[in-house]
Amino acid sequence: MIVRRTLALDKRQREPATVAFGPCEAGVAGPEADPAHSEAKRRAGSGALLAVAAVCVAAAILKLQPLVMDFDTVGVRFDDAVRPDSPGKRLDEVLLRNLDHFAYLRSFDHVFAAGSRRLEIRRPLWFDRCEVRQGDFYRFLQWLPFQPGLENLAPGQPLGWQYDTDTRDHVISGRLDAPANGLTFHDAWAYCGAAGGRLPTGGEWTAAALGPEGRRYPWGDDFTSEPWPYLDPLLNATRPCDEYPATDTPLGIAEMGHNVSEWAVAGGPSRGALVMGGNGYNAPRDLYSLGVLNRRAPAVYRSPYLGFRCVYDLRPRATPWRTPADTVVLAVGEYAVGIPEDARVPSLLAYIPRDRLSLIGRLFAEGDRPAMREVHLTAREITRREYDSFLGDPFVAFGLHAEANQPRGHSHRPPDWDTQILEPDLPVVNVDWWSAYAFASWAGGRLPTAEEWESAASGHGRRVYPWGNDWRAAVNTAPADQVQRRLRVVGQDDYDATPEGLLALGGNVSEWTRSVSGASGRYSVVVKGGNYLLPIGETARMDFSNHVSPNHRSPTLGFRVAFDRAR
Fold this sequence. Notes:
It is built from 19 helices and 17 strands.
């Protein structure tokens, strides 16, 4: 299975400074170097040195590693391949460019969380080519009092509601050729219904704005600031139709990305109110004008930057107040009206806490990428049965696989080993970093970096949790062992599994990496992943990490091994 690299290394995380694999190789100081230990080694007798040399020569000749041990691994591919152009990539580019705004901007969360969606238009729809004008709406208000029985055209409107616009006398917004604005969802609904049409649904509006090809903006994929020539946003929202024909859709529908935003109807049983498209006020404009985005609003909301257009299920005629029909046909077909399937940023924005926006930027950083390579991670955390073979190797006891700065007199045997080995298929725990490092060397591999671990868990940056984007999906299928907060033996059908086949990245035990950090004010090792004692919704995220001393042991801390070639 393949997971492409999307992460740039956090500048606080560095590879361990040492590259030594034990007493046979010299290395510079790694985490928590022991100067006294180094001095003691320099004073060692010639007999001990000769013994070490003999063992090292034997190891070099035999390349001592476990002769029978085999590991089930999953390949994780890292490369710097350029992501091909697509609707999803184009959307991601705009969101990343405006990432800082999402620290407070939550208006689009429901769109991001909804993900991809397609809409089938089964019969032609006639869209108003222009937004409904102020003059047209005034004529509707003058016509309405003479039509008995039309006092309640909009469903859910408050009792005694009076259709109106609060910009009738505004010097600028009162221009008859400017888009109608300052009116509510009820007012817009009533106008379209009386005109023989209706308000479009959010999906229909998006289909007309994006077209079957999935444009980024109604006019195409490249943003233009042409429709915003004034510093006064109200002037930018009161331009007559056809003033900027270059921003029409290819079908000829005008003003879907600027001038005023437009009322639409939300899908589903609630049939609530949506606000579609950009306008003369909201910024950043290249974000708000994206055709796929919409906002929710109360039906009684009014704004000088919010108007509407109508859609008709049959070819329209002039309205009863003598506004001639000027429409464009949206053809039958299937349209993508949600987040493009290959977009990565929206799902992260929907689920990652906003105080971690920098993580998203790091996920998609373009610089400092290594050449193509493949790393194979053990599918499961290292078990006690596997660790027992490691403890039984006399060369391990001699220190052949120890990290060069391992504390003197260190033992790889966990303090509760007699109890642990009674359940040999559970993950080994209560091992410190020195022991995890030595096991990985003994197995012919290494500990994964925090970056490799995150990339494997996120699956090319598309997932927040190893299994997907919703932690509840795991809770709903969690086995009884997890509910009882205890270690478990994981299998291929386990809830905590990536689509690529890696198991227990989100829980069971947290895991050592080979990345070190100075975030705590001293050198510490980065630990990734949640464990069975931590709340799953917070700690199973691929970005969750801790920083602990390499001497730390815990009943919730284990590890897995990375190999630079298949095993």
